[in-house]
Each structure stands twice: as C-alpha cells, then as structure tokens.
Specification:
Number of strands: 2
Radius of gyration: 16 Å
Structural class: mainly alpha
Order of helices and strands: HEEHHH
Strand content: 5-15%
Shape: elongated
Distance between the termini: 16 Å
Largest sheet: 2 strands, antiparallel
Keywords: Membrane, Transmembrane, Transmembrane helix
Mean pLDDT: 86
Low-confidence stretches: none
Oligomer: single chain
Number of helices: 4
C-alpha cells in the first residue's frame, strides 16, 4: 500500500471518529423550542439518520484504498469503539449517551448498514 493510500485510509478513520463523536453529542436533540421549533418536546434523533447514511459510505471508502476485510471494516470498528468509550467514560467522567431508545437506535443505525456493506464486500470476487 502506498503512502498516499495509507493517508487516505487514516483520513477515513478520522472521519469515522469525528462522526461518532458528533452523532453522540447531537443524539439528545429535542423539538423543545430552544434550538429547534417547539413541537411538544419530541425527541429529534437526526444523528441516527446521519449514522445510517455515513457509516456504510466510510466502509466502502476504506475498501477502495486497500484490500482486506480488516481494512474495510476498520471505519466500523473505530465508530463502534468511539461510541463505546463515550458511553462508558465520557468527557470529565460524565455519561454522554442517553438511557433510552435513541441510543439503541444509534448503535443499530450505524452498525447494521455498515455490517451489510462489509458483507457485500466479502461476497465480491477479488
């Protein structure tokens, strides 16, 4: 693998880390009139939609830069690892993830489409 491809793969992994952090921090958004319009204080987990769209794209981008299952699944592993670290420790000892259905939806929305993308790459002939 050339230095150019390694740099591109590192950039994809950094993007997976940054997206995971942003998705966790924006997960508790609510339609409460503070930042978004007031619609009966409903949860607005837009970061789940972002995770559903971006994590498979990162897996496919990583697979373009090098062959191998570990390289292709590395953005998914970085994304999951970041979510688990933020769920366990958090900055300053705080727990960042909320304890409700939105957290489960975030994990499922990011991991399942990415796992399907990894499976599709495994099924491709070299």
């Amino acid at each position: 693998m050339t230095a150019e491809r390694r740099l591109a793969l590192v950039a994809v992994l950094v993007q997976a880390f940054v997206l995971a952090v942003l998705e966790v921090f924006f997960l508790p958004l609510r339609l409460d009139g503070t930042l978004l319009p007031d619609v009966r204080d409903w949860p607005f987990p837009i970061s789940v939609v972002v995770a559903i769209v971006t994590t498979p794209m990162l897996v496919l981008a990583a697979s373009r830069h090098a062959r191998g299952l570990l390289v292709a699944s590395s953005p998914l592993l970085v994304w999951l690892g970041t979510l688990l670290v933020l769920a366990t420790f958090g900055p300053g000892g705080d727990v960042v993830l909320v304890n409700d259905w939105r957290t489960l939806l975030l994990f499922a929305g990011g991991a399942l489409p990415s796992a399907i993308a990894v499976g599709a790459l495994m099924g491709k002939p070299h």
